[in-house]
Amino acid sequence: MSYRITQVDLAVDAAEKAAIMPPLDARWLTEGPLARAFQEKIATLTGARHVFFAPNGTLGLFLAALALEPRPGDEILIPSFTFYGSATAAHYAGFKPVFVDVDPETFAVAADQFEAAIGPATRALMPVHIYGQCCDMAPIVDLARGRGLAIIEDAAQALSVTLDGKSAGTFGDIGVFSLFSDKTITTGEGGILVTDDDAIAERIRLIRNQGRPNSGTFVHPSLGMNFRITDLQAAIGLAQFGKLPAILADRERKRVRYSDGLAGVGDLRFMKRIRGSTIVPFRFPILTAQREALANSLEAAGIQTRGFFYPMHLQPKLRQENQPSLPVSERLSREGLCLPVHVHVTDGQLDDIVGTIRRHFGA
Ligand SMILES: Cc1ncc(COP(=O)(O)O)c(C=O)c1O
Question: Do residues 298 and 305 make contact, with C-beta atoms less than 8 angstroms apart?
Answer without folding.
Answer: yes
